[in-house]
Every structure is written in structure tokens, then in C-alpha cells.
Design goal:
It contains 18 helices and 22 strands. It is an alpha+beta fold. The strands form 5 sheets. Strands 1, 2, 4, 7, 10, 12, 13 and 14 form an 8-stranded mixed sheet that branches. The longest helix is centred in the middle third of the chain and has 21 residues. The protein binds ligand BES and zinc ion. The site of ligand BES has 14 residues, from strand 19 and helix 3.
Length: 643
């Protein structure tokens, strides 16, 4: 099987050896691509969705709502602060006396109107989850306000990396993560996915660094200004504020296709450009499903290894973990996923976090259709089978909270992060598969295409979607309505039994070898020649519940799992190693937990460790070492687990 070096590193002082970044180190020009003209947005600023109140924002959009954000910020890497001004355009009721914004850990230094006159403001009591409401008094004609502010060094959205935490080791780095409600920790605005905003930005960074954002670049190489270089950006399509994003560092660019390319540190550029070689074809496949790509360019930035997610669908510029760089393009469904969000999520957005499945369920369905178009039905089928197993595991894990296995959630009083389980992703995608199977692919494709067009640049609730489905697909077909069992899927827990059962020929072959292994065949005698990554994942996910140390050794000797460079395969192997207290894999575990900060990998491993007597002190020791290197998103989750 394929063995590739783990090509990423959190750069821990004293980390176990072997964390060497594959430094191909061909220095590219850091200049960014020329801007291809952007398709003009369909609407200037779509109206906020009035049908459901967002319990995770203080904003009162019926009174005054933000339509545009203009940022003027300076990145201070010594103080670890962004400092400057956010100017907000408002659409307001004529008699509105105030406008309310979301903030978290922001130092608000002053608020003024267009003419520079100070406006009175108050900051509400801090809420642990939501932060503080910033309430600004409006005069009868205030349409634009400017907020002078600075972010906190601990801003939850921002991670400031020391040079040692980057691939190049010479320059510091900053990146943001807005979803779900973290944008308020770096921009004072109305941080609700139902309140769409356009934005522009002037960002001043120290000399030698390069800024990118989820927007059109107006100054690809920056402009010299006192104290550094200024980079200007503009996004003319209205987006939910969780999609405003920035990265600053020693960032280089390489073009892949006419409107696609990859950004990353120079040392990672070769491997990133290879991994995403099919990017342009992916966009074409996505367009044939969702309609024209409406955002101009599609680029991917590969971030330093502490990025807490696999990927984040920031418009025009997907943010991605370096753990996707397997060396053989085997994990690129992640990019298909983030690209798919350019339709499901970014073009048509969940109106509140209770409707999160509208973003992720649609996107997983869409992702697999892209993978099918590029690599064939079998590749998509494998992903679907693996996804189904993840879903069943998740339903089991949530058995004490069955309400969380509904598609439509009730997250009042909770962090919306609690809703980001596999339910939204896999139950959501499974529901769309049921509809597809019931009406046939042609009709469903036509419906989907219409759905994106009808609701482009708006935010929808679950109810809005169901109304659209009934109006445009089900119509008066009562038999179809009954067959779908919409109510069970959306409002009831668990997996309805009309779910389409996925199957894959390549994974069935793995099942045969699993049977053989369970009957005592030594690992080396198994027929694994030519297996691809998803087959290895399936193999490891379906080994007998309990294995002897001899069996673990047998597997490791035959297949070298502990030396595995594919992050997804290594992750499952390490979970097995922890569950069976398989000592020889412990150095690999330590290396994995200290060399990348992806929450999806960290959380289960720490949980598994904490569930055993021997593992608990290990988890604490490792976490104490690694915690300072993880992003706040991962820290918040892990602090709860490793107490
Ligand atoms: N939008 C999500 C990431 C996210 C979700 C961030 C909720 C914050 C809150 C992104 O599209 C995503 O789903 N990423 C996955 C990878 C994907 C291939 C399933 C991830 O990060 O693991
Ligand atoms: Zn997603």
C-alpha cells in the first residue's frame, strides 16, 4: 500500500521526530492571478429572511440591518491584534432609534456617523456563547456608521501563528475561521447567516507578508504604505458574514486552470498544485449540476496544519487543511465538497443554524455527484457507503440526545457548534438521495438547478425549502409525498427505513477479505493488491470489534499502518490502536496529535484516550503540550474532553 511522509507539522518544540515538511521549495512569484471579470450578482443585497428569528444573533434586522461592510484594518503581529475601522451600511426602518450588532471580545473605541460625529453606543452584558450586543443610537438619517475597534489576541476566529508553526519557519501567519458565529470576534457586524452583506477591505500587513481574502483581489501584489503593504479586496455578491475570511503570511500562488489556482506557503506549493490538479474539471462538473459558477475565480489555500477543519468554503477561496495532501489525490472529495458549497451554502444559505443541514446535507450530496462525474460511480458509491456507516455511528453516539438526530435542530441556548454533527451531513445527503430515487435523476437534477436559481443569494429556512420542494417538485402528487416521508426525515430522530441503501463493488471485495481475516487468515495472505484509500478506510472501520495484540501486530507488519502517511487511514488505525492499547503505534499517535490541529481527528482520539485508565494521563500529557498550538475552535472542544 501507499506510504507517504506526513508532510505537515505544528512544529512543536521537542516533538517526536519525523515531522519534516516536504520542502520542494521552488520559489514561485507570489503574485496573484489577474482578476477574471466577476458575474454580476443577481441582487445588490437580498432581503433578510423574515420567516425565522436567529437565536444566535443580537441583531434586530427589522429595525436596521447591515448591507455592506467596509474594513480598514492593520495587522499587528507583535500585539496579535487587528486594529482599525469597520464602516457599516445600513438599511433601516424610518423610525428606527438604534441598530444592534454582534461582538465578541472586541475593544470598541468609538462609533461615529458618516460626517464623523460621535454616536452614543452601549455594550451589553457578555453572553458565554453569543458575546456582547453593540447597540448604537441612530439619528433620523444615519445610514452609515463607522466603528473604531481592535480585536483581542484571544479572538476566537483568529489564529496568530509564530514562524515555527509554519512550513517555512521564517514568517508569522494569521488566518480566520468565521463559521458558525466567530466572525463577531474580529468584525463588529450582524453575525447572522440570514443577514447577507457585501464587503470590501483595505488590509495593511508587515513587509514581506501577503494577504488574501474570500473576495476579489484588487491589488494582487499589494501597495507600499507607511508601516508595510496594503492589500485591497472587494466582494460584490452578498454573503452571510461567516464567509468573510482572511489569511496573511508568506503565501505564494500557482495557477491550475483559467479561473482556478492554489495558494500556500512556497514550501508546500508543489505538493498542493499536484493534489488539486483536477480543480478546473471539478468546477466544470459542478457547473453542469448547479448552473454557472457565480463567484468569478475558484482558488484553494492550503493553510498551516493547525487549521481546525478539513476545509472551509470561503467564497472564491476555499481554506483547506494540509492533511488533505495525501500525495495521490485520494482525499480530494474534500475540495469537491467545499466547491459544492459555492452553490449549496454560499449561493443558497441556511437562514439560521437550526437549518444547518441545508448547507451540509445538500453539499455532501453535491460533492458525491461531482466525484461521480470526475471519477465514476464506484468512487461516489464508496464515499456513500463510508458516509452511511459514519451516520449510523453518529446516531448511536447521540442515543442519549435523540433530538440532535433530527435534520431541523433546536439549538436555542446552545452553541451552534453542537449542531455540526454527521446528522446534518449524512442524514441530510441521505434524504436528498431518497428524493432523487423517488423522482429519478433527471427530474431531481432539474429541480436542484431550479432551486439554486430561484433562491440565489438568499438565505432559507428548512420550511422555506420544504415549501419550494412541494411547489416545484412534489406538486399534487400525493403518492410521492407519502413515499418521501418528509416529516420523518426532517422532524423525527433516527434514520427512516425508506433510506436508499448504498452499495459498492470495491468495498464488497473488502468485506470478503474482512471475513477471511476474521476466520483466521493472516494479514499477509489477504488479497489487498491495488486497494485504494477508501478500501483501506472501509477495511479498518470494519475489523472485528476486538482484536488481540497479535492480530494488531500482524496487520501493522503486513500493511505498515503505523507508518501510514494518508491522514484519513492513519486516523482510523490510531483509533484502533488506542482502543486496543497497541503500544507500537503510540509514537505515531503522539506525532499525529502534535502535528496537525484538525478537530475531526483530534476529538475522537482524545475521547478514546480519556475513556481508558492508561490513556487518561497520556491524553493530559499530550494535550498540555499540544494545546497552545491548536486553534481556539479545537481548544474549545478539547477543553471539555481533556479536563
Ligand atoms: N462548512 C464546513 C466547516 C464548518 C462547519 C465549520 C461548521 C464550522 C462550523 C465545511 O464545509 C466542512 O464540512 N468541512 C469538513 C470537510 C468535508 C469534506 C466534510 C471538515 O472540515 O471536516
Ligand atoms: Zn461543508
Amino acid at each position: 500500500m501507499m506510504l507517504k511522509p506526513v508532510s505537515f507539522s505544528l512544529a512543536m518544540a521537542g516533538a517526536v521526530g519525523g515531522l519534516i515538511v516536504t520542502a520542494a521549495c521552488s520559489r514561485e512569484s507570489s503574485s496573484a492571478p489577474m482578476n477574471t471579470p466577476t458575474t454580476p450578482p443577481m441582487t445588490a443585497a437580498a432581503p433578510a429572511n423574515p420567516t425565522e428569528h436567529d437565536v444566535h444573533s443580537f441583531a434586530i434586522p427589522a429595525e436596521a440591518r447591515v448591507t455592506h461592510v467596509a474594513l480598514d484594518l492593520h495587522a499587528d503581529f507583535t500585539a496579535k491584534r487587528l486594529t482599525g475601522k469597520a464602516t457599516l451600511d445600513l438599511e433601516r426602518a424610518p423610525d428606527a432609534k438604534k441598530a444592534v450588532f454582534d461582538t465578541q471580545d472586541l475593544d470598541i473605541r468609538g462609533v461615529s456617523d458618516d460626517a464623523g460625529h460621535a454616536l452614543p453606543f452601549t455594550l451589553g452584558n457578555g453572553d458565554r456563547i453569543l458575546g456582547r450586543a453593540l447597540t448604537v443610537a441612530l439619528t433620523s438619517n444615519t445610514r452609515r456608521i463607522a466603528i473604531d475597534y481592535a480585536t483581542s489576541p484571544d479572538a476566537a476566529a483568529l489564529q496568530w501563528l509564530d514562524p515555527e508553526q509554519t512550513a517555512g519557519k521564517r514568517h508569522p501567519y494569521l488566518f480566520s475561521q468565521g463559521e458558525a458565529i466567530l466572525t463577531r470576534s474580529w468584525i463588529p457586524t450582524q453575525d447572522s447567516p440570514g443577514i447577507r452583506q457585501t464587503y470590501d477591505a483595505h488590509i495593511v500587513v508587515p513587509d514581506g507578508l501577503h494577504a488574501v481574502m474570500s473576495a476579489e483581489q484588487l491589488t494582487p501584489d499589494g501597495i507600499a504604505v507607511p508601516g508595510g503593504r496594503r492589500f485591497d479586496f472587494r466582494l460584490t455578491q452578498p454573503i452571510p458574514p461567516y464567509l468573510i475570511a482572511i489569511a496573511i503570511g508568506d503565501i505564494a500562488f500557482r495557477s491550475i486552470g483559467p479561473r482556478t489556482g492554489v495558494y500556500t506557503e512556497p514550501a508546500v506549493l508543489d505538493s498542493a498544485a499536484y493534489e488539486f490538479g483536477d480543480l478546473e474539471r471539478m468546477v466544470q462538473a459542478a457547473e453542469s449540476l448547479g448552473g454557472p459558477y457565480r463567484w468569478g475565480r475558484y482558488d484553494v489555500i492550503v493553510l498551516p496544519p493547525s487549521f481546525p477543519f478539513g476545509g472551509m468554503e470561503n467564497p472564491r477561496l476555499t481554506f483547506a487543511t494540509p492533511t488533505v495532501l495525501a500525495g495521490d489525490r485520494s482525499l480530494t472529495s474534500l475540495v469537491a465538497h467545499e466547491l459544492a458549497h459555492s452553490w449549496s451554502g454560499n449561493l443558497v444559505t441556511n437562514a439560521t443554524w437550526n437549518d444547518f443541514w441545508l448547507n451540509e446535507g445538500f453539499t455532501v450530496y453535491f460533492e458525491r455527484r461531482i466525484m461521480e462525474a470526475l471519477y465514476g460511480q464506484e468512487r461516489a458509491a464508496m464515499l456513500e457507503v463510508i458516509g452511511r456507516q459514519d451516520l449510523l455511528d453518529e446516531i448511536k453516539r447521540l442515543s442519549a440526545m435523540p433530538g440532535d438526530t433530527r435534520l431541523h435542530l433546536d439549538l436555542a441556548g446552545r452553541d451552534p457548534d453542537a449542531g455540526t454533527t454527521n446528522i446534518a451531513y449524512e442524514k441530510g445527503a441521505a434524504f436528498l438521495r431518497v428524493i432523487e430515487a423517488a423522482v429519478g435523476r433527471d427530474r431531481f437534477d432539474q429541480y436542484l438547478r431550479g432551486y439554486f436559481d430561484r433562491h440565489a443569494f438568499t438565505s432559507l429556512t428548512t420550511e422555506d425549502f420544504l415549501a419550494d420542494l412541494r411547489a416545484n417538485l412534489i406538486k399534487d402528487d400525493h403518492a410521492l409525498e407519502e413515499r418521501l416521508r418528509i416529516n420523518d426525515w426532517v422532524y423525527q430522530p433516527g434514520l427512516p427505513d425508506n433510506a436508499v441503501k448504498p452499495s459498492s463493488t470495491l468495498l464488497a471485495r473488502v468485506d470478503a477479505q474482512l471475513d477471511s481475516f476474521a476466520r483466521g487468515t493472516p494479514a499477509l495472505r489477504l488479497e489487498t493488491k491495488g486497494w485504494v484509500t477508501q478500501q483501506w478506510q472501509h477495511f479498518l472501520m470494519n475489523l472485528p470489534e476486538s482484536l488481540t495484540v497479535a492480530q494488531m501486530e500482524d496487520l501493522d507488519r503486513a500493511f505498515g499502518f503505523s507508518r501510514q502517511g494518508n491522514s484519513e487511514v492513519l486516523f482510523i488505525w490510531l483509533r484502533l490502536a488506542v482502543r486496543h492499547h497497541y503500544q507500537p503505534a503510540m509514537p505515531a499517535l503522539e506525532r499525529f496529535l502534535t502535528s496537525q490541529g484538525r478537530r475531526k481527528f483530534l476529538k475522537p482520539l482524545y475521547e478514546d484516550l480519556m475513556a481508558t485508565d492508561w490513556g487518561k494521563p497520556e491524553a493530559k500529557r499530550l494535550y498540555q503540550r499540544a494545546r497552545p498550538l491548536y486553534h481556539a475552535v479545537s481548544r474549545m472542544t478539547l477543553d471539555e474532553i481533556v479536563k
